[in-house]
Amino acid sequence: YASADSLLLEIPHPHTRHAGHYQVSIMLFGYTMTFDYELYDVNAVRLQSSAGTRVPISALVYGRKYELQQLVFVSVANFPQTLGVSDIVADMDAETAVEIQAVQDTTTCVPA
Prior knowledge:
This protein is an all-beta fold. A hairpin with a 2-residue loop joins strand 1 (20-28) and strand 2. It contains no helices and eight strands. The strands form four sheets. A two-stranded antiparallel ribbon has the order 1-2. A two-stranded antiparallel ribbon has the order 3-6. A two-stranded antiparallel sheet has the order 4-5.
């Protein structure tokens, strides 16, 4: 067979699956390639993205240790609107309460 710099495969999602995380394996000429695949309910409350999920807790600058307080930003789809920080509970490892500093509605949809 001839080699190519790249190959594009079109794979339709299976209609018989339920929402969830799956791993897809492709076997081609003795090679196995895998990748993660997610099917989700477009109307369900779900995590869209997060940023700042891997941050340092301290830094040493000119011999002085500084405790860092980094922010984590989370975007959630289909979340009820007009909620305040006191309406949301967050924790870390189901043990440590996490303070929510701000809630901002980024997209507003008119109910049908």
